[in-house]
Predict the 3D structure of the following.
Amino acid sequence: GIPGIRWLDRHGAAAGQGWREQWRAARSYCGVQGGWLNHDLAPAPSLFDLVPDSIAICTPVTRGLGPGANRIALRRAILGSAAHYLGTYRSLDRAVARAWVAAAADPWRFLFVVFPGIDGISHLKDPFHPAVVESYRLVDRALGAFVKRLRQEGRELPAIFVVSDHGMTEMREHHDIAELLEQSGIRTLRHPAHVWREGAAAATMVSGNASVQLYFEPRSGRVAPQRESEIPAAILERLLALPSVRLAAHRADGDGGGDGVIVRTSAGRALLTETDGIVRYEPEDGDPLGLDGYVELDDRELLARTRKTDMPDAPRQLLQLFQTPRSGDVVLAAEPGFDFRGPWEIPEHRAGHGSLIAEHMEVPIAASVPLPDAPLRTVDLMPTVLERLDVTLPHGVALDGAPFSKIAVTEPLTR
């Protein structure tokens, strides 16, 4: 799995003696490495693989698309680069809108459309800036124009889903974890200019910018993630004391912990484990996730239970994150109003996402078909789309989500 928009290939960082190998090991899908996303993904079929008659507009994920199905790819590269530095997202979104309306006349079974402007302008300004609100209106007008064109073509209206991949909050203060470590004498590998840091004792990989993954001893030759007893305790305690850190998480030790995840705050500690579909939350000191004590629930019931907290779905997200050996030794999630990258970033981020707080985790899902009266995840959309298209998964392929039809009728198992 891919643990974030930036992550460290431990094997590459340890083995890479040349500048190119070290640069490759420090993954960042924000720049020229963006195309690597498609081969870094697990070798499971994409939605485009499963639905060959697909068209995608302005998508970073292209694996499985047929010839000519990846629309405005060149314009995305040019306009997207300009928008990142100049803030000209409106030009990119208009190009997406034109391509979307034009696609109404083409044959397809699945159409995937990405509007980057809302996210991009929010990062530059704030989530409620008038320019961001206008970006929402642009999407709304484009949807109306697309539906009008479909009717002109005499086509039946498809099921339409409008969804965001994350929330967003204003950032009032930057706490650059890499710079804080450097000030403590800990050489730190980080983007963009220090991926070649000699003698690095730590690496910081920031996503969103409200989460950061820390990798210790990146040049040591070690490729296995560190567990609790191996993580530098003094560094972890120092990070937990920062006002910007909502929580830290890391892998539990093998004895008794198994594949468990330790969740830490400055005032609490708990163990997360999962066995046969039942997730256990065991507070050992305090209550880091605010679940009012020991919890043992099935996945969907736990999702509903955590909706009442300030970090909805945190147990599932943390357990899933640490399933991949690519994730950091320690992961930090930020408090509201903070992020983990300094004002030096070009452009400076005035809003962000990536933490486990509700404002980042909860997103709207608007649909032209009925939605279940139950908590949903965005990963439920893929199996729902496949079910509506009557597409069967290949043998041995499993998805993280569930189709809406199953969510509506399934009784949760609780203990």
